[in-house]
Amino acid sequence: MKHLTYLIIGIAVTVLFFILSCTDGFNIYELLYFNQGYNDQMYNLDMYPTIAAITILVAWGGAAIYYFAINSVKFDRWYHWLAVLGVVAVLTPVICYIYNDTVFANNNLMYVGESIKFEMQTVLFAALLYIVASFSMRWWSSNCRHTPIPQ
How far apart are alpha carbons 114 and 61 in whole angstroms? Predict the structure, then answer.
């Protein structure tokens, strides 16, 4: 029952992140980086939900790959878990930047510097969501359940 509670809390935190990234009055992405023209275009082009979905999918997908696909006794140390965190933290802003740049290019907008600054916060959100996902699903892993912190 305790393990199911962790999963439910992890899902609730992730859903809350998605809701807070899509709201009009209080947007979690605008807390860390705000540029009037850039953020207005992000909102007008409805890009926040997609950026949030990419962040969630890569973070939860990385944790699922680590705990269920890799799931090896030879790969169950904290530094292996940290390596997957690093991959998630690098891959997420790259994918989000490609999406961001493509949408802006299709609308004849140029926000290269702003996009790079914006994606720096995606590193933080991806890392946090990876940690949440890890502690939500690690209990069902047969070999990596003690990573990153032993129970």
Answer: 27
Helix H or strand E segment including 18:
helix 2-22
pTM score: 0.92
Using CB atoms within 10 Å of the CB of residue 109, give its burial: 0 to 12 exposed, 13 to 18 middle, 19+ buried.
middle
CA 101 from chain center: how many Å?
Answer: 18
pLDDT means over runs of 10, the chain (151 residues)? 89 95 86 88 93 97 93 86 96 96 94 92 96 91 79 62
Crossing angle of helices 48-64 and 2-22, rounded to 10°: 160
- CA–CA separation, 109 vs 143, rounded Å? 48
Of 107, 92, 115, 94, the residue nearest 38 (C-alpha): 115
